[in-house]
Structure formats: structure tokens, C-alpha cells
Specification:
This protein is of the alpha/beta class. The protein contains eight helices and seven strands; from the N terminus they run E-H-E-H-E-H-E-H-E-H-E-H-E-H-H.
Amino acid sequence: MGRFDGKVVLVTGASSGIGAALAVEVAREGGDLALLARRADRLAEVGERVRALGRRAVALACDVTRDGDLESAVAACRERLGRLDVAVANAGFGVSGRFEELALDDYRRQLETNVLGVLRTAYAALADLKRSRGTLAVVGSVAGYLPGPGSSPYAASKFAVRALAESLRIELRPHGIAVVLVSPGFVDSEIRRVDNLGQLRDDAPDPVPRWLRMPAEVAARKIARAIAARRRECVVTAHGRLAVMLARHAPWLVRAAAARYRGQRKPPANPA
């Protein structure tokens, strides 16, 4: 038996990276998928991969920054797949740059996607998750524990997502809803090739060396297991677990390391 037999799982940001890999892994484990993202062509490709595994897939063009999009997508999921058991709020991107060089609109754009997008997903899925006593999975980041110079918008958004997950876990427990926080480190994805306006730059190199990046498929297996087990949190990658441990138990060391980057103009890469 698969971990998601008989379950319907909705994934935002399902057109690439962790979202696409997670959708395929859920299908391998017996789940049906509602796939949400802005890029309909890429969603269609992921949908074909899911169907090739013998599972149902509904691809729905959706922008988590637009009011009403998530409600329409959840309604379509319910109509075409019959129910909703797991909602994965995965859509996000990273704004980077030194504070002095950024504008308020950069921070607003970051929070609109990474924080309000999670909230829109949670609100839209809430009634269905209450009925199924299901799971809300929120994709944060190791950056939600480990802020650094040159990435204050992204870190602020992921700190907020972590706090949101902790609060919702307590509030939603009486309804039988589990809240799983996923905190990835460096995973193979497009996030580090997306600019501050949220546009993918295909020709941009990934600044993180390949040996430090976990393949998205490996990360997806770990995340799927955590969601199926309704675990409190899943920190993905060995370096991510180390970073979170240091942030929790040796914050002085983290501050000292961050201080070494003061004055550099090239910001560190955001985790996925």
C-alpha cells in the first residue's frame, strides 16, 4: 500500500522544483493530484507524469497572489477529484539584495507571494481539510532560522511562514488537521534563477555548487514521508539540519559567521 492511497493532494507551485517532484512522489505513493501554478504548459507536463503512474491529475492555472484564485482551484479540485486531504503551500520565490538597494515594493512583492500566498492556500482549503481531518503542509526554508546579509526579504518571509505554521498547528489541532512545516536547505530547483520580479532567467547559473544541492526527487521523498506521517517539521538536507541546529543552540556562532559577509555586494543564494 502507498502512503497516499485514496488521498487527494493539492500542491501549489507544482510546475517545477520541489512542487513538481513532490507531485510525482505522491502519485507513486497512490495519491491523486490537484496541480496549481501560473505556467499551464509546465503543469500539463507534470500532470502527464502523474497520469503515467496511473493516478488522476487536475492541472489548474493559479496565481497565489490573486484573491479568489485559490478558492476557485479548491472548488475545481473538489468537483473533479471528490475531496481534499492534503494541501501543500509550496509556491514561492526569493528576493535578494542589500537593504539599501531594495525598495518597499520588493519587500511587498516577496511577502505577497511567500506569506499571503500561504494564507490564501490555508483559507481556501480549510473547510475541506476540516471535513477530511487532513493535513496542511507549509514549505518554509532553512532561511526561516538562519537569516543572512543580502537576503532580508526572503528570510523575513520564511520566518513569518514558520511562525504561521507554529500558530496554525495549535489552532487547527482540535479540528483534526495536522500542520507540517517543511524547511529545505539547498535543493535543485529554479528558485535561485528567478529574479526579484519573480521572472525565471533560464540563462542564469545556479550559484550553489552541485555537490551541495540535493536532487529535488530525493527531497520530495523525504517531504512526502513527513507529510504522510503528519510530522511537526521536516528539515531537508544535512546542511539544513546543521544550520537549524546551530541557529537553535549556538546563535552566537551563526551571528559571527554572518558578520564575515558584511560589506559584500553579492548576496548569498537563497535555499529552495
